[in-house]
Each structure stands twice: as structure tokens, then as C-alpha cells.
Amino acid sequence: MLEVAGLKKVYTTGIFHKHTINAIDNVSFRVEKGETLGIVGESGCGKSTLGRCVLRLTEPTEGKIFFNNVEITSLDKKSMRNLRSKMQMIFQDPDSSLNPRKTIWQSIAEPLQILGIEKNLIEKKVSKLVRHVGLLPEHIDRYPHQLSGGQNQRAVLARALTLEPLLLVADEPTASLDVSVQAQILNLLKSLKKEYGLTMIFISHELELMKHMSDRIAVMYMGKIIETGSTEDIFRTAHHPFTLLLLHGNDAYTEEHSCIKVQGKGCNYYMNCPVRLEKCGYEAPDLKCLKNGHYVACHKVI
Ligand SMILES: Nc1ncnc2c1ncn2[C@@H]1O[C@H](COP(=O)(O)OP(=O)(O)OP(=O)(O)O)[C@@H](O)[C@H]1O
Ligand SMILES: [Mg+2]
């Protein structure tokens, strides 16, 4: 369904003192039809940038993206707009997802109205979506500020599903919700995924959530994938010291844990790594295969 090859995104900031940020650094992965790939990593490691680049909402600096075997990186704006109905994103910031001046019904119906679909067909479709995401009929004529965070997130899901997408990128869809509502929305996302036959990229900084949501997991650190494998591989036999830190924590060494970029070409994790070798200071490790589908970028491991 989706293949990403050698993706890079460099941001340049500053006017007088230019500063470049390698937000995504040579990332490659595939997502098979019907599968959920979880992307996990600490704040600022490039998860949202990756999600946005996959849909070309942010233009990648380098690399190729194939969606259903079509190379989308070279498509013009119009073809991309047509294709994007099949690729939807749920954004990290819930306030930016719904128009505050539109009722929930208007927001969900809007993509269908743009396509010029008949009014009673729209009515039917919107009512069905509203029911599927668990909103009550009394909610749909309200504005976003008249609903709870959980109810708004249900409306965001309905809107994302209006055009029957094949791929859904969910960027921390429950980050703003309290724990009990989080569980409801995640369960809903899982059942909608099944019902609509979606392929999904699920982004979160919490590895624990991945256990319930993902078939495979990619762990990111400073713009790179440092370990990837099936959910079982990651939870049972993770090898990279950063994945182990996410899994088990380690107070002694989280204290000095910070995003220090090694000068030159070494491993990004060098300064924080408890098992670093001399080589790690000057040579960045590539992702290497440990066993079927389980890849690790660490000189110490492989
Ligand atoms: N538009 C932008 N211009 C410049 N730098 C940016 C821009 N957007 C993101 N960045 C930088 O790129 C890096 C990756 O940001 P991104 O938002 O992708 O991280 P993230 O993993 O989603 O973090 P979080 O978990 O906090 O959402 C960060 O260092 C961030 O400061
Ligand atoms: Mg983010």
C-alpha cells in the first residue's frame, strides 16, 4: 500500500543565522494493505514531520513515496489533491482539525459537498458515519466548542472517513484526552480500521499504546528509524539501547538524556548510550537485519 524510500526533510530556520534541522534523515519503510505501522519516539524526533511528508502536506527534501505503486513524490498539485482523498491524516492538534465556525454536520459533510454529491445521499452517509463513531444525533448540529474533547475527536474521525480513505495517518490522536476517553477513542479507531479496511500509520510517543494498536513498530530517534520489527519483536526481543530505555526506563541514565547531536558522522544516540563503542562516535550505524523483519541500527548489537 505504501512504500517510503530514503526520505529526508531538512528545515531551515533563522534569517541572519541560518540553522538547518534534519527532521527526517534517510527513512525507509513499507506498510502492507490492512496493516498498522506504529511510529514511536520522543518529542521532536520527527514523527509528525514524517506523517505529513507521507501525504505531501509537507514537501520532503529528498526521497520517494509510493502509494499503491504510484510514485506520488513527482505528482503535480492537482493529481495529488485527487489522491489525497484516499490518504487522510488526523492531526496532533485537535483544535486545528475542525472549523470552529462550522457545525459538526457541516464539517463531516463538507468533503462530499465539494464533490457535488446529491443532498440526500450526503444525509445518509453522514448519519451513518455519525452513528459509527458513536456520536448522538443531538451532537451534530453543535459547534466544536459545544462538545467535549472526546466527542470532537469522534467527529474528526468521522470527517477523516467521509471520503473512504485507504490510508489513515493518525498523529497522536488521543494526546489531548484524559486516560478513560483515550481508551474509548483508541478502541473506536481499531474497530473502524477493521470495518473500513484501513491501512494505518499510528504515531505516538507512548510505546505502551503501540502494543494494542500496531502490527509492526518503527522506533525513531532524531530523525532516523533506529529499530523496527513486529510488535512482538519490539516488546519481547528489542535490542537497541534507546528502545530498551523506552520499554524499561532507566532513571540513572535518563538524567543525562538529552538531544545532543554528535559532531560529524557518529551515531545520534552516542552521548546518551550506555553501551557505546569507540566506533559509534565517528560512524553512524545503518539499519541491519537481525532476523526476518526485525532491523536494528546499533554497532553493539549487530
Ligand atoms: N515548520 C518547521 N520549521 C522548522 N523546524 C521544524 C518545523 N516543524 C518541525 N520542526 C522541527 O523538526 C523536528 C521534528 O519535529 P516534529 O514535529 O516532526 O516532531 P515530533 O516527533 O512530532 O514531536 P512531538 O512528539 O512533540 O509531536 C523538531 O526539531 C522541530 O523543532
Ligand atoms: Mg508530533
In words, what does this structure look like?
This protein is of the alpha/beta class and 302 residues long. The chain is built from 10 helices and 12 strands. Strands 6-7-8-3-9-10-12-11 form an 8-stranded mixed β-sheet, with helices on both faces. Strand 7 (167-171), helix 6 and strand 8 (199-204) form a beta-alpha-beta unit. The radius of gyration is 20 Å and the shape is globular. The model is unreliable at 252-262 (pLDDT under 50). Bound molecules: adenosine-5'-triphosphate and magnesium ion. The site of magnesium ion has 4 residues, from helix 1.
Give the CATH H-level superfamily of the domain at 2-86 and 163-248: P-loop containing nucleotide triphosphate hydrolases
Global structural class: alpha/beta
The first-level CATH class of the domain at 2-86 and 163-248 is given as Alpha Beta
Order of helices and strands: EEEHEEHEHHHEHEHEEHHHEE
- What gap, in angstroms, lies between the N and C termini? 30 Å
Largest sheet: 8 strands, mixed
Instruction: Tell me the helix content.
Output: 25-40%
Cα radius of gyration in angstroms: 20 Å
- Give the distinct bound molecules: adenosine-5'-triphosphate, magnesium ion
Low-confidence stretches: 252-262
Strand numbers in spatial order across the main sheet? 6-7-8-3-9-10-12-11
Q: Report strand %.
A: 15-25%
Average pLDDT metric: 90
Determine the number of helices (DSSP H or I, runs of at least 4 residues): 10
Number of strands: 12
Examine the coordinates and then state which fold CATH places here, giving the name of the CATH topology of the domain at 2-86 and 163-248: Rossmann fold
What overall form do the CA principal axes indicate?
A: globular
- Give the name of the CATH architecture of the domain at 2-86 and 163-248: 3-Layer(aba) Sandwich
